[in-house]
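Objective 1b of the project was to move from sequence-level analysis to a structural picture of ligand recognition. The entry below was assembled by the postdoctoral researcher (A.K.) and checked by the PI before modelling. It contains the amino acid sequence of the target and the SMILES of the bound compound, zinc ion.
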Amino acid sequence: MTDYALAVDLGGTKVEAALVDVTGRVLPGSRHRRTTGATSTAEALAASVTEAVESALESATEPEIELIGAGIGSAGPIAGRTGNVSPLNLAAWRDYPLGELVGDLLPAALPVTLRMDGICIALAEVWVGAAQTESSVMGMIVSTGVGGGVILDGRVITGRSGNAGHIGHLQVAGFDDVCACGARGCLEAVASGPRTVAWARTQGWTGTTGEELAASAGQGDATARAAIERSAGAVGAAIASASALVDLDLVAIGGGFSHVADDYIDLVQAAVAHHSDFAFVTSTRVVASALSGEGPLIGAAALIHQAERVA
Ligand SMILES: [Zn+2]
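Corresponding predicted holo structure:
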């Protein structure tokens, strides 16, 4: 018998579920995806989660598979350790009992652990990714949003309400952009893919997507390049501020927009390195995530397989 965790990753555009073993390997054929989306009703979201989970669980019927629990990574905010979620970009779900929904789909009463998706990313980096030799780590996503999670001295930092690690809502000096959270100057409002594209358009660039921005910058368009540097500079400033507070060894960055330029990670590292005169801040290393697109699912499974880090 081999122990497997059901892993669920809930995001603003999709939900995925899969079975993941104790080495962080996704069982071939067990990964299933359904759409979510900002305009979905509460019932439609529940149906998407149910379908993805049930499809994944169909792979668990082989006799050598022992299902030992379910780990769920959710877009934030979440509600502490209750399993309830209120994802910013899924308006139909407010304080929704996602953990209970998934738990009821399991074939037996098994442990269900739900944490913010950023925490799962950080766990995956420490477990099987770019941070396996480090103890104080932040995992980050720069994509349609900006998220993260923090592990200090090898232990996950969950926080009072479950939402520690929301680096996308750290304010960055010099910026005043309005954020969806209600504040101004948040990293996500400055540096996310869509916000970076929007800024480039205010400067006269005429494309509409991150892919077009990447192509323009690659062809030497100065405005597109400036937009990318603006994003990376803001990410670096936020990382430096976070490291001043919690003294990070390493930050691993993934997410689609982190691939907008070949040197995006280098730009972020440079912004960290020149942030201040504090060596403990500027020596924080920034690396590309070593996780594939399976990273969020592997991280959700880590909530079960690496439970000692989460307790
Ligand atoms: Zn914000």
